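Page 42, continued from yesterday. The earlier attempt failed because a stray header line got pasted into the input along with the sequence. Redoing it now with the clean sequence only.
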Amino acid sequence: MIPALRAYAWVLTRRHEDVDDLVQDTLVKAIDKFDQYQSGTNLRAWLMTIMRNTFLNGAKRSARMQTGAEDCIADTISVPATQEWTLRGHEMMDKVAELPDHYRETLILVVMLGESYETAAKICDVEVGTVKSRVNRARKMLMEALEGNEPDGVERPRK
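This time it went through. C-alpha cells are written below.
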C-alpha cells in the first residue's frame, strides 16, 4: 500500500518534502485506529480516507497559523531603524560639548538630567532666573548650531 499512498500524497501535497511526512502520519493514525477498520472492506480506500483527512486538517491548521497575511504584524517593522537617530544624537552631543561651560552645565542639568530650575540654581550657585536664561540661550545656540548657523555673539573655544 505504501507506493499507492506515496502517489496519493504527491497528488495532495505537490511537494516532495511533504510526501513522506504525510504517508508516515497516515500510517501512524491507521495503526492507532486499526480497531475501527472493518475486516473485509477496502483497506486501500480506508487508508486514503485517513490520508485525505490528515492532509485537510493540516491545511486548515497551517492556514490559521499562516504568517504574512495582509494585516499580519510581521509586515511592519517591529523595531525602527536607529542609525539616523544615533548619528543625530552624536551630532547633538558634539554641539553641546562646544557650548560655553556655564550654558552647557545648565542645559545638561535641566534638559538632559531633568533637574528643576531651583535645584540647578543651587548646584550652580546662581539665581533661578539666571538658570532659566542660560538654559534658554543654550537651547537657542544648540538649535542654531545644529541647523548649521553659528550663534551670534558667542565665542568658540579654541581647539
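Notes: The CA atoms of residues 9 and 18 lie 8 Å apart.
Reminder to self: strip header lines before submitting.
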